[in-house]
Amino acid sequence: MSTILDTSIFWGKFLYYILESLVYRIIPKKKKNVAGKIALITGAGSGLGRLLAITFASLGAILVLWDVNEEGNMETCRMIKEKDDVKVFAYTRNCGNRQDVYRVADQKGKRKKTMDPLLLPILEQEYVAPKVLNAILEEQVYWIMPTLLHVVLLLKEIISPDMMITLAETLEWTPPWLC
Asked: In 147-175, which positions are buried (b, 16+ CB within 10 angstroms) versus exposed (e)?
């Protein structure tokens, strides 16, 4: 009897969350107000981190900026102080744990390459920043980009490893998680 009850509860919750996600595609979630809240921005000295810091400042957040690049971090701090009347604290952090997933160009300005431009395209920081900000303000638990990765992750979960390898060999393609 408990198996039928557990199965019914599972399908009820499954349908509820599917409908909820469809509704949120039409009616956006209420966004969190960050005015007066502390926002820690890692990698604030350039790129996506800098764009997020500037945007959070415009929303009235108190900023704590971390970066390994002291000069870039201080430049971001100056840019924000010139434009917005918010509290900004910049710290140089040399923890070695760099998050280069979103970086578009290396230190010399050369574009980075991707092993699969269709599946993992290089995304411009101006395109990514508003999406990251929106995910933060809507308090999304996780956020996946580009959208095609949703399909790939779903396939990864439902297709057996042997079938995935056979499919990859047939298409002469190596999925990133098999590299």
From this structure: eeeeebeeeeeeeeeeebeeeeeeeeeeb
Answer yes or no: pTM beyond 0.85: no
125-137 vs 47-58: helix crossing angle, rounded to 10: 50
Instruction: Show Cβ contacts of residue 80 under 8 Å, excluding neighbours closer than 6 positions.
Output: 53, 54, 57, 63, 86, 88
pLDDT tens track for 125-167: 999 999 999 999 998 887 888 877 777 777 777 877 777 677 6
How far, in Å, CA of 37 to CA of 54, rounded?
A: 15
* pLDDT tens digits, one per residue of 109-125: 455 677 777 767 888 89
**What span, in angstroms and rounded, lies between the C-alpha atoms of 133 and 121?**
20
